[in-house]
Amino acid sequence: MSTPSMRDSGQGPYHAQGQILAERYQLLEQVGQGGMAFVYRAYDMRTGHNVAVKILRPDLAQDKDYVNRFQREAEAASKMTHHNIVNLLDVGIDHENRYLVMEYVEGKTLKAVIQERGRILPVTAAQITIRILSALQHAHDNGIIHRDIKPQNILVNSSGLIKVADFGIARIADSVTITKGDIVMGSVHYFSPEQASGQTVDARSDIYSVGVVLYEMLTGDIPFKGENHVAVAMQHIHNRPAPIESIVPDVPPAIAAVCMKAMSKNPKYRYQNARDMAADLRLALDGRTPSVPMRPEVQPVRKTEGTPVQSSTDGHVTESRRRRPGRMRIILTVVGTALVLGLLTHLGLRMYDELMRMVDVPDFITMDAESARRQAERLGLKVQIREVNHPSYAVGVVALQSPEYPYKLVKGDTVILGVSKGPASQTVPGVEGRTVSDAIAILQAAGLTMTVTEQVVSKDVEEGFIVSQAPAAGTTCGSGDLVQVTVSGGLCVVPEIVGKTFREARSLIESAGLVLNSSVEIVLTDDPALHDLVRTQSVQPGMQVIRGTQVSLAVYQVTSMTHSVDVTLDIPESQGLISVRVTLMTQGGEIAVFQEEYPSDASRHPTVSLVAPEGGNFVYRVYCNDRFAYQQEVVLP
Model confidence over 216-231: pLDDT tens digits? Predict the structure, then answer.
């Protein structure tokens, strides 16, 4: 049902589901792959939590440059602890496997979010950028330069928490040992000009990359494209990106100005630190225009070939111009009069048309934003919503409008509605003891954003209710700030499972509110008395854990007493390695009974044995690279 632990497996460059690293971390699924490492979602058998395990590819374990780079990532991560950075939990070597263990973030990359939405609303994009800058300021304060900021390295969890990941090519600011390969590493579409030209980089290089990320969020596209990496790099060095307002006119000019300053070619004209850029973005979000001087571009003087510039130097009028016949003067007078009459007629008709299309602008103040929008659109007006801080109007209520009431506009004109997002600073409401949905509503009404940082064991707080919050209730914070909460996962006591039959163990786990890991380790034995009995359990009996914690089992099996059947798999063609997992649907749920990886040149129709402790009619399911492929019925005699 599963493969042996990594210590016993002699595993090559790939690692299979169910393998155990350092006798602690059970690999569940591969979630990422880079040029130097594989990333897995894993189960920490000591804590009962999911973690992310990054393992250096074994074929690179003897490459000094890659080993140094991997160690530098561990060194950089160990210097940082921040709520917007994927934090390091453990580091070590298990035989040939060098690994880092980091917190597991359930969610998507910012790149995936941009691709799904097309582009991100300016206010949200600015708030996300502020979180990224907060993480980078912490890194820079600790002497760490990321050097590979891009949306693919920004994680967004289901609660909206932003995490900066992958310090794999980060540089310690005072380090002088930079490998030759590092100079050209990184993502060329987010390179700073100094990276593109191979110069030494500092914190301002990360600022440039953040500017490119913000540009992509605002416009839905990267600023520079090319046929190859060199073409893109040259544009970063020499070309200015298209103005944001020419692509998306509704982006507030203040936010666009901050973005363009961050992308200045010369580092001395950018923001000199992440804190200053974040401060200007906060000003822009508050409806105030930050001081962002823009350096004028020097435009070359253009001449039209073959057309010399003519100027009069003698002050005399030519003879041909002096001799205009009177007849021409009469023709010009007639034509001019006709033009004037035509213009007056056109203006009169236009004025009449506009009078018929005039509408009275209503008083939108105190209306909720959506009602105001609908009323304006019914009158034929366009609407722009701008969020503003206001000390007395509730969040979501129109506090300002332009033009003011009473006023007349022509249908098709735009009315700007300033919708309150609460005061610039306010008292944080208390949400401890509330349900997650109630807390979200309370904090949103106050103009704040909530994010769940962790589920914790609690015997005093009911499952799904909030245990703690930060900042604490009653403290002062800025509008739009983040309130982080921990949520009770309830309390379950792990039962004693060792020595029970597999069926009994499954029942005990479910009754306790826990989840059986579908990947069950088989331990072969010749003793019939041990057949189908649990040998070990991953979480110790008596331990208090949150509801839904996974428990992994190792079960004794006597080969002659097991039930098995051979089936032929149908694996799709692929240019790369395919991980195949087969499960059986039993009364107790879905149990993994086969796991293997097939290279591109392997048979697409291998015959495999499905082994289970019980016989009967089953449905087996086939997953390729953790995606469901197909299912069929089978009988285990």
Answer: 999 999 999 988 887 8
Q: What is the 3-state secondary structure (H, E, C) of 408-425?
A: EEECCCEEEEEEECCCCE
pTM over 0.85: no
Distance CA 106, CA 124 (A): 20
- For residue 369, being part of any structural domain is answered with yes
Angle between helices 253-262 and 122-141 (to 10 degrees): 30
Phi-psi region of 313 (alpha: psi -120 to 50; beta: other; left: phi over 0): alpha
Task: Quote the number of domains for the chain.
Answer: 5
Full domain range(s) for residue 255: 109-285
Question: Same domain, yes or no, for 169 and 264?
Answer: yes
* Chosen domain end from 488, 521, 541: 488
Do residues 69 and 131 share a domain?
no
DSSP for residue 606: -
Q: Taking Cα atoms as reference points, which of 63, 10, 16 lies closest to residue 36?
A: 63
* Tens-place pLDDT, residues 308-317: 334 333 444 4
Q: Are residues 15 and 122 in the same domain?
A: no
Q: How many CB atoms lie within 10 A of CB 20?
A: 24
Q: What is the β-pairing status of strands 476-478 and 515-516?
A: unpaired
- For this structure, is 353 an active site residue? no
Kindly name the residue from 44, 63, 94, 148 that is annotated as catalytic: 148
